[in-house]
Amino acid sequence: MSLRISNCCEGWLGRAAWLLAGLVLGLAAGGVLPHAPLHAVATDRYENFAMATGPVDQDMECLFFLDSVTGELKATALSPVTGKFQAAFTTNVLADLQVDPSKNPKYLMTTGLAQLRRIPGAGNVQPGAAVVYVAELSTGQCVAYAVPWNSAASRGGATQFSALVPLDKIQFRTAAVREK
Questions:
Q1: CA–CA dist 52, 20 (Å, integer)
Q2: What percent of the chain has pLDDT over 90?
Q3: Dihedral angle at the C-alpha atoms of 97, 102, 104, 105, nearest 10 degrees?
Q4: What is the pLDDT of residue 92?
Q5: Angstrom distance (rounded) from CA 79 to CA 158
Q6: What is the pTM of this model?
Q7: 3-state class of 45 per DSSP?
Q8: CA dihedral 122, 107, 98, 111 (to 10 degrees)
Q9: Which residue from 18, 66, 95, 127 could staple onto 50, CB 3.0 to 4.6 Å apart?
Q10: Closest CA relative to residue 55, chosen from 168, 154, 159
């Protein structure tokens, strides 16, 4: 009977040793391997409005709003100091997308990451990490906009007001679209 008990304990101890060895190796590998940050954004739409989020620096994200009726694209960010909205960035996408507002434009909007060193044509302004893409379906055009973000002003609690900066435009559809 004592032989059976020792065999049972050896099996349990062996499994525990393997589990402990796997845990130690996993922790060691996790400490050595590079860490990839997780970036998540949210996008939603209802009738004539769309909204999306996108990071502007490591500590803050912007909230983007697109009004499909007026073509107004707005972005805002909270102050890490006060917890209040401290930044406002705006533009109107109608001219950039060459859209006739009487034709009932249909927009898509999403955000992405772009570690741009500077914004072309905007002097020494450092862009935020988020780029917002706005596409209009009937014209088949998409424009990318940058946020002229000042991280130091944000950390200091200063307000920021500026225009969103168009980076580039692409034609994603070349066929003419007929309205029904």
A1: 44
A2: 32
A3: 0
A4: 95
A5: 8
A6: 0.73
A7: strand
A8: 20
A9: 66
A10: 154
From CA 89, how far away is CA 165, in angstroms rounded? 9
Q: Which residue did the predictor score with more confidence, 77 or 12?
A: 77
What does the block give as tokens for 22? 């796997």
Report the alpha-carbon distance of residue 78 to residue 141 in Å, rounded.
31
How many Cα atoms are found within 13 Å in the side-chain-facing hemisphere of 101?
Answer: 12
Residue type, 83: G
> How many residues can be counted in the chain?
180
What residue type is assigned to position 103 of the chain? K
Question: Which residues are CB-contacts of 142 (< 8 A; sequence separation ≥ 6)?
Answer: 133, 134, 135, 136, 169, 170, 172
pLDDT at 6 over 80: no
Which residue ranges make up each domain of the chain?
Answer: 1-35, 43-171
Q: In which residue are the tokens 């980076």 written?
A: 167
Cβ–Cβ < 8 Å for 25, 83 = no
